[in-house]
Design goal:
The protein is of the alpha+beta class and 844 residues long. The chain contains 24 helices and 25 strands. The strands form two sheets. It has a 20-stranded antiparallel β-sheet, with helices on both faces. The N and C termini lie far apart (79 Å).
């Protein structure tokens, strides 16, 4: 008996364990049936362009350590920008400013990823592009609606297809070779794809039918490379992949050259890739850019000793390596080597042109001019040389100052002899020779409209430099520095600290005196600020409207500029490529060569970071206004619904076969009245809110139902942060109209205006909620609340503002949004919740 009993127990336990294992396995498998794709899974292995910006939230702490943060945030300047933003939003009459700002805010805070890939088919030459907006899923529905509206005006139909739990909106661009645009929500992100059959190819990539970028070794090496700074952005271009794909295509020119042959002629066939990284390094903004494979070094690298005698206070300067004579030889060689492309007589024609060039010009460009030039060029702006760029000067190192003076003298002699013979050349810039300090100075007359001329520009050989200035004084100052009569720029402690982090040998160096540049701009701005203030007060403000800020609110210019330091960028070139490094305190004024160390992607990333403080602070102040606007939109939708159907929507859509919390809610009923008709049409009205097609549709984020100050992260279904008021008591939602405790919303209640005998201005219709938040599509407590237990605000009923603060916003039945104090008399709040109790509403 003991043995049989043990066997029975063993079998029972075994069956139980098997059942448990099966159940667990089934649940795990069910969870694995659907999984949102990562960005990596959506991008094919054939990706040749990749760019990502992490978003400022990811690197907020690092940004706080930068000089830029100290300059713009700590000084208080960002606060003023926030006030201007609030002022502009408050004056927006379209109702779209809040939404646009919130969308841009998400983009800036959470970043994006962009990629472009080549088609696997050899005959398909059009690439595909994929945009992934991190945390942009909440805006997908709005974006699709806007897209439909825009395309409807052009009679273009947007197709909605379901792939798993995805609702993908797509269309073909008219008059294009089958270029498709697709858009959908993927997890918390919004995905936009453009290209031939791009939706299917992306789905194939997600499913694993097509390899993704995890198998692109070249890109993975870039992504996995370590940096010694806090990286916030990255871009990568695979030039070799493009050459492989398109190199064999013949161009429609008489010579029928291929793209590869043209690139070889231009010297671009050696370019391998371009990589840019940007971010923060201590107190500085830092960028590094590599142009791999396209390198050349013209002689020894430069050092600070190679700089010309710069003015003691340059606004900016750019010094770079050059070799004009070598460049001439390369161009001549290039022309001769490819002369055959001009036809059978091409070589002879090219040789004739090269040989006759000295006769046509009147001098040999190589021996008479270029051989006299050295390998260092510099352009700068002297702060003491005047405003608006009048101190800009260009200088070029000379191998033979005497040879250059001789060349200038010979060319001026030719011109003067022609004048003696009555031959005046019609030149827009006409040179004249004058004597100054015993030496020739060449000045220029520029011909303007009406044959008027004015003097602008001068040139002279000074020491072993050829100097060209916009004003003659720049050349005189250069001479005085050469003679030791004026001070010469020396790197101070700030410049030395910056230079210590950069290569000491370089092919170019750019420096911008950021502090003085901003100081000048701020000083000029402060002059006009009172005039601007008065103009706004006279022409913009209405009634008792206040200025966003006044003159006295503006921080001192010195408080803004004090944390700044010089921006420096250097480049280093060798046979393997070119590397750019940039160290800056904030975005400087773009000058010639001034951003040589930054790509357009990194400059854009720094620009976004500059706006971060203002946007972040404006966001907090704008949230309350946006939530109130959401409630106003809900109120307007309720009234439009009542005008259409003769009553407000029932708390849940009618369905006798379903319990209230299984039905679709009033929030689903008013979707067409808040410009969400696309979502409404996807709903299956006879099914439960989370059954069939509705399970996917209920994941669509509806911006009008989202309080921006509330938690936006929900794993399954899109939430609603507002609820209809059912009245007072636990059974308020089931009451019939006229019964005590009855509010506007009930599960099966269709309230008319005439039923609200207490008056629409004295009856609450919708409230903010801060607890038990559920899906917008679901009936029951998710979208309807009644007053059951005190405290009514920030209490067990979940009614209250997002921060459980002093007030809660409520939508009255007349469409007004009112702020109700958390300390309101509970009886007053009960009176507001009921629509026909006949009680007088007290102060709230």
């Amino acid at each position: 008996m003991r043995t049989k009993h043990n066997r029975w127990v063993f079998r029972t336990v075994s069956v139980g364990l098997i059942a448990v294992i099966f159940a667990v396995s089934w649940n795990v498998a069910s969870g694995l049936v659907w999984q949102d794709a990562t960005a990596e899974q959506m991008m094919p292995q054939s990706t040749f362009l990749y760019a990502e910006f992490e978003g400022v939230t990811e690197n907020a702490e690092a940004y706080k350590e930068t000089a830029e943060y100290a300059a713009f945030v700590d000084s208080g300047l960002a606060d003023l920008f926030q006030k201007v933003v609030d002022f502009a939003i408050a004056r927006d009459n379209t109702g779209k400013a809040e939404g646009i700002k919130a969308a841009l805010d998400d983009l800036i805070n959470h970043g994006f990823i962009l990629s472009a890939s080549l088609a696997e088919e050899q005959n398909q030459l059009i690439p595909s592009v994929r945009f992934i907006f991190n945390e942009g899923g909440a805006w997908t529905s709005d974006a699709v609606n806007l897209l439909q509206e825009m395309l409807a005006e052009k009679d273009i139909e947007v197709e909605i297809q379901k792939v798993g739990r995805r609702q993908i909106a797509s269309f073909i661009i008219p008059d294009s070779p089958g270029i498709e645009v697709g858009m959908w929500k993927e997890g918390e992100s919004m995905v936009v794809v453009v290209g031939p059959d791009v939706v299917n190819s992306t789905m194939a990539c997600i499913s694993g039918e097509v390899p993704n970028i995890s198998q692109n070794d070249r890109l993975q090496a870039v992504l996995k490379a370590e940096t010694d700074f806090e990286q916030t952005g990255l871009s990568w271009l695979d030039w070799q992949a493009l050459q492989t794909k398109y190199g064999g295509i013949r161009l429609p020119i008489p010579q029928q050259l291929t793209i590869a042959e043209v690139l070889e002629i231009a010297g671009l066939d050696k370019l391998d890739s371009v990589i840019n990284r940007g971010g923060y390094r201590g107190e500085s903004q830092w960028t590094e850019t590599s142009i791999v494979g396209l390198g050349q070094q013209d002689g020894p690298m430069l050092t600070l000793k190679d700089l010309p005698p710069l003015p003691s206070k340059p606004n900016w300067f750019n010094v770079f390596q050059c070799n004009p004579a070598a460049l001439h030889d390369q161009l001549v060689s290039l022309a001769k080597n490819n002369a055959g492309l001009m036809g059978p007589d091409g070589e002879e024609q090219v040789n004739q042109i090269i040989e006759s060039l000295p006769q046509m010009l009147g001098f040999d460009p190589k021996t008479d001019l270029l051989d006299h030039l050295g390998n260092v060029a510099c352009i700068y702006d002297d702060a003491n040389g005047g405003v608006f760029g009048t101190g800009i000067t260009f200088c070029l190192k000379l191998k033979s100052p005497e040879g250059m003076e001789s060349f200038i003298d010979s060319q001026m002699a030719r011109l003067e002899k022609a004048e003696e013979n009555g031959e005046y050349l019609e030149l827009p810039v006409y040179p004249y020779r004058i004597e100054q300090d015993g030496k020739d100075l060449i000045v220029f007359d520029i011909t303007g409209d009406g044959d008027q001329t004015f003097q602008y520009g001068a040139v002279r050989v000074v020491g072993d430099w050829l100097v060209v200035g916009l004003m003659p004084q720049s050349i005189k100052s250069f001479q005085l520095r050469v003679d030791g009569k004026l001070p010469v720029w020396e790197p101070d402690a700030e410049y030395q600290a910056a230079l210590a982090e950069l290569p000491s040998e370089f092919t170019s160096l750019t420096a911008v005196n950021t502090r003085d540049t901003y100081q000048l701009m701020l000083n000029w701005g402060m002059m006009f600020l009172p005039v601007l203030q008065q103009s706004v007060m006279d022409n913009v403000l209405e009634g008792d409207e206040e200025m966003p800020f006044y003159v006295e609110d503006f921080p001192p210019a010195e408080a803004i500029t004090a944390p700044m330091f010089p921006n420096l960028a250097v480049s280093v070139a060798d046979e393997n490529g070119i590397k750019f490094y940039s160290r800056s305190s904030t975005v400087g004024i773009p000058m010639m060569g001034g951003n040589s160390g930054m790509s357009s992607v990194s400059v854009a990333a720094v620009g976004v970071a500059l706006l971060l403080p203002a946007v972040q602070q404006a966001r907090s102040a704008a949230r309350g206004a946006q939530s109130k606007n959401n409630m106003k939109q809900i109120g307007l939708a309720m009234h439009n619904y009542a005008d259409t159907y003769g009553h407000f929507p029932s708390g849940t859509m009618e369905n006798a076969d379903l319990k209230p919390d299984e039905r679709l809610s009033w929030a689903a009923s008013i979707l067409p009245f808040i410009e969400e008709g696309f979502v409404y049409e996807q709903l299956q009205k006879d099914q439960a809110w989370n059954a069939g097609e509705n399970e996917v549709t209920a994941t669509f984020m509806i911006s009008t139902y989202m309080d921006p100050a509330q938690n936006q992260n929900f794993e399954e279904f899109a939430p609603i942060h507002y609820a209809g008021i059912a009245g007072t008591g636990k059974n308020a939602a089931t009451l019939k109209i006229g019964q005590p405790g009855c509010g506007i919303f009930g599960y099966d209640r269709e309230t008319r205006f005439r039923d609200i005998t207490d008056g629409t201005s004295n009856t609450m219709m919708v409230t903010q909620v801060n607890d038990d938040i559920g899906p917008w599509a679901q009936g029951g407590k998710s979208t309807i609340r009644s007053l059951t237990k005190q405290p009514y605000i920030n209490g067990p009923d979940g009614i209250g503002g997002p921060t459980q603060g002093d007030v809660v916003f409520v939508l009255m039945a007349d469409g007004a949004v009112r702020a109700v104090s958390a300390n309101v008399d509970p009886k007053t709040f009960e009176n507001l919740a009921e629509m026909a109790d006949g009680n007088v509403v007290g102060e709230f």
